[in-house]
Please model this.
Amino acid sequence: MAKAKTIYSCTECGASAPKWQGQCPGCGVWNTLVETIAENAPASTSRFAALGGTAGLQTLSEIEAREEDRLPTGIGEFDRALGGGLVAGGVVLLGGDPGIGKSTLLLQALAELSGASHVLYVSGEESGQQIAMRARRLSLDTKKLKLLAEINLEKILSTLHSVKPQVAVIDSIQTLWSDQLSSAPGSVAQVRECAAQLTRLAKQTGINIILVGHVTKEGALAGPRVLEHIVDTVLYFEGDTHSSFRLIRAVKNRYGAVNEIGVFAMTDKGLKGVNNPSAMFLSQHGQEVPGSCVLVTQEGTRPLLVEIQALVDQAHGNPRRLTVGLDAQRLAMLLAVLHRHAGIVCFDQDVFVNAVGGVKIVEPAADLSVMLSIVSSLKNRSLPSKLIVFGEVGLAGEIRPAPRGQERLKEAAKLGFTRAMIPEANKPRHPIAGFEVIAVRRVDEAVERLRELD
Ligand code: TYD
Ligand code: MG
Model:
């Protein structure tokens, strides 16, 4: 028997090369080429087939732009991340670590939707029995929830064609395989082909399709990057599996804002939306402690209050710098700025910084609170209670404004905070009743003002 011809395809961009090489010829990323069986792509699978019916030139202004009708899933926090609900013909990709709650959330959403819409849950990972048991445990109304345990793409497509549900969940895209291709389920070619075919079906028939995707160890969606380009919306489910909080974050949304988040708590009755999450990342101290500083961060349109904790301790040997939930490179930078512009020396100290509650904070507006928590721990003096801090720190020692400063201040005031140390440029034009604003321009000024506070 002739040996199957193999090629090497990139797990990032899907480009292929006849021979193995260290760097992908398509996207230039290293070590992403994996051996796959060469496929003659079936004639019908042009990636642009979904657009086939819309040929003909038009002026943009002639096209009637209507707001898409949204189909709310009935799970408020999920709808929020989606930008208001599902859109007919839209394809959503939901990625996340194993066990984070993807299947649970989608089962809950489908059960809610099944009251008024036709829905179909396609499972390639769990048997009907397992899903039924979970639904019973969650006390869901599943009388109208249709289930298909299948991994063959062609069978799924024909079922979707004949059943014509309004919403279909595919759990997960990595388990599907098309019999047009000979490579294994989960391979680049299969994932790409299955996603493209399902997307085409969604666009043609107006079915909402929600795909579940696995993530790699690095936290990116497994499979080719093209997957993210094919679909309309990419949502990430994140959270610390040790805590019960889960965030759904929109990283791409053709029908809404990105970086919008939905917040859930995992309970023994499944995922429950958290309506007022802004205070959930504050730890409850009986009294003020050194090294703790409350930051108001902004996630999408939502301000969140997060406690930043620092511990500065005499180093033995090489000083260590460690961050949890914050950028370690940025910590090194902040320590250098602190030294050069405020004369605070940490090079003989270990510095540990933690964002409480397992949140990841990427925005630079966290800089000032990280800095002040370090100063507080180093001097062993606690910051005043009821103080919030935000602001970006520049290499020249300047404190730069954070976006949406007013909303951050309002949220803090709402939660009972009475003081804020913020960048000068974020200073509100009208004073907020019962709220003192300390506006600072430079790092040394911030440290100086801190000393004056009780
Ligand atoms: P699951 O939805 O199967 O995760 P995924 O599909 O993302 O892999 O979630 C399973 C986890 O959720 C499992 O660790 C148990 C937990 N869980 C609860 O805590 N409460 C519940 O009511 C359910 C159904 C699951
Ligand atoms: Mg699952």
